[in-house]
Design a protein that fits this description.
heterodimer; A: 127 residues; alpha+beta; Alpha-Beta Plaits; 2 domains; two-stranded antiparallel sheet; 22% helix; globular; B: 412 residues; alpha/beta; FAD/NAD(P)-binding domain; Enolase-like, domain 1; five-stranded parallel sheet; 25% helix; 28% strand
């Protein structure tokens, strides 16, 4: 569900149906699954982020503790994909990379994956 | 503490941010012969391609970066000498700038081998700086009517080719090596990328070189000739080590530093393309002229200049690059046991040695490549993870439950 909520939250569409129906979704959080184990992976918003340090265009920055991407500055070189130990940044159809920005830039303002997880397995807290 | 940085590229930014992480107030002076605020050098090909603009490039850091960090910039100024006894830096014109701690971030310069008749070529440029990109842009003009010859099929030459291929009449890339990207790729993946680039209309001449130039004609060692309008020299780069050597720093191909980014002269540090790094993947000393490495070395230098005790000992060669839509990510060393997956539009090579992943090449699908990079950087013993899973694709599932909990639940 977190993948669907993520895709919807960042789609700019007014409803989940409009955002997801007949679309191949490209969420910024992803589930790894095998046998009876599954877990969600999204940006850890590292305090010492390799993606930000290695970004050749300065498109990745830390804003209020969260790692954000300026899609307009990003040239799509993928040095961040090379650098991230969690595999948390991904390519997008627009050329720039995409990543979890904690829903800070969309209309929801709070991570929708957290709200959408029926098992309360994703939490949003300071560590 | 009074800090001086020579150079204004990524290593200098790392140094500034490293200093400020420890010392919020000590004055910092940046001296550079370039007139621009810092920009990401690898962006120059994207500028020609139209994927970025000069304005965006010059905002690698925000407009108030220097002011906010209390940095005085002396741009368009050339350093002529470092005087370690007087602890000052001398500028052209005679001015002296005193320092308590100095960082040399002088980068590298294009290597132009002696070539007969090069001085007869009317339109030629290297491809390293923003000014080079602007020069090339002017030479190409707007009419898509130029024949361009690029010498060098390394990263710089090929990124240049990508930057201009849509606005030239003919584009030829020549290299002495028998394959493209000889320092980054092995034969098979090099051939995959070569074929892709050729499909976009670029012609390669490999295993050959220019014997002499005569105006706009290049005569090859093999005897053939190429007529061109614009020549780009992208043979390679050489570190700018003269100031450091003259100051008494130990230098071989680049400036020698320890894992604190300190040179062999007290209070002088060095970072970026002008230095020699220790490549932990191949366990050898070499120049790693790559942007993330420059930042990390600079940051380490900055922190230590400001009095902390920070080591950087995870340098490896690594590159992420795309050529006309085909992406490639590489890291580490290719010397070891290999695991290969290959089909039409995707290639993946993993190289292991002594229970460690030491290198990889991914072309096409580069999803989550950083998980592989991390195994190399952290020198993770492969028997501590599920290697069959990680071989299949980069995934955190391959780590133990405890390790996953640390990665996904802990603070980073």
């Amino acid at each position: 569900m977190c993948e669907y909520y993520c895709a919807f939250a960042n789609s700019g569409k007014s409803s989940m149906v409009k955002a997801l129906k007949d679309h191949k979704i490209a969420p910024r959080i992803r589930i790894e699954e095998r046998n009876n184990i599954s877990f969600a992976v999204s940006c850890r918003h590292c305090t010492d982020p390799l993606c930000v340090k290695g970004c050749i265009s300065g498109a990745l920055t830390i804003v209020d503790g969260a790692v954000q991407i300026d899609s307009d500055k990003c040239v799509g070189c993928y040095t961040c994909i090379l650098s991230c130990p969690y595999g948390a940044l991904s390519t997008s159809n627009e050329g720039a990379i995409q990543k979890c920005e904690l829903c800070a830039k969309n209309e929801f303002g709070q991570p929708m994956c957290v709200q959408g997880c029926p098992n309360k397995a994703i939490v949003y807290e300071e560590r | 503490m009074n800090y001086v940085i020579i150079g204004n590229g990524t290593a200098a930014v790392g140094t500034i941010e490293g200093i400020r992480a420890v010392d919020p107030t000590g004055p910092i002076t940046v001296i550079s012969d370039e007139i621009y605020p810092v920009y990401g050098r690898p962006l120059i090909s994207y500028l020609l391609l139209g994927k970025t603009t000069e304005d965006k490039m010059l905002h690698y850091r925000p407009a108030d970066f220097y002011e906010k960090n209390g940095v005085k910039t002396m741009l368009g100024r050339t350093v002529t000498k470092i005087d370690p006894a007087a602890k000052s830096v001398l500028l052209e014109g005679g001015e002296a700038v005193p320092y308590d701690k100095l960082c040399i971030c002088t980068g590298s310069r294009p290597f132009v081998p002696p070539m007969e008749g090069l001085d007869t070529v009317p339109h030629k440029t290297s491809f390293m700086t923003l000014d080079d990109a602007k020069r090339l842009d002017t030479m190409l003009g707007a009419d898509n009517d130029k024949r361009v010859l690029i010498i060098g099929a390394g990263l710089i030459g090929l990124k240049c080719a990508e930057g201009i291929y849509q606005r030239v009449k003919k584009l030829t890339v020549i290299d002495l090596a028998p394959r493209i990207l000889p320092n980054v790729l092995t034969e098979v993946p090099a051939a995959i990328i070569q074929k892709h680039i050729e499909g976009k209309g670029v012609q390669f001449i490999l295993g050959d070189s220019v014997a002499r130039f005569d105006g706009t004609t290049a005569t090859l060692q093999s005897g053939g000739t190429i007529d061109f309008d614009v020549l780009v020299i992208a043979v390679g780069v050489r570190p700018n080590t003269e100031l450091a050597a003259d100051a008494g720093c130990e230098v071989n191909r680049g400036i020698l530093t320890d894992n604190h980014s300190a040179t062999t002269v007290p209070d002088i540090y060095a970072a970026g393309d002008c230095t020699v790094s220790h490549d932990i993947a191949a366990d050898t000393d070499r120049i790693l002229a790559i942007l993330p490495n420059a930042y990390m070395q600079g940051e380490t230098a900055g922190r230590n200049m400001a009095g902390s005790n920070t080591s950087f000992d995870k340098a490896i060669p690594m590159n992420a690059s795309g050529f006309m839509g085909l992406h490639m990510i590489t890291a580490g060393s290719y010397d070891g046991e290999t695991y290969l997956e290959q089909d039409e539009d995707h290639y993946k090579l993993l190289v292991t040695r002594d229970n460690h992943l030491v290198g990889f090449i991914m072309i096409g699908d580069v999803d989550r490549a950083g998980i592989y990079t991390s195994l190399i950087r952290e020198q993770t013993p492969l028997d501590s993870i599920d290697f069959s899973l990680i071989r299949e694709k980069p995934q955190l599932m391959a780590f133990s439950r405890a390790e996953r909990a640390k990665k996904l639940g802990g603070a980073h």
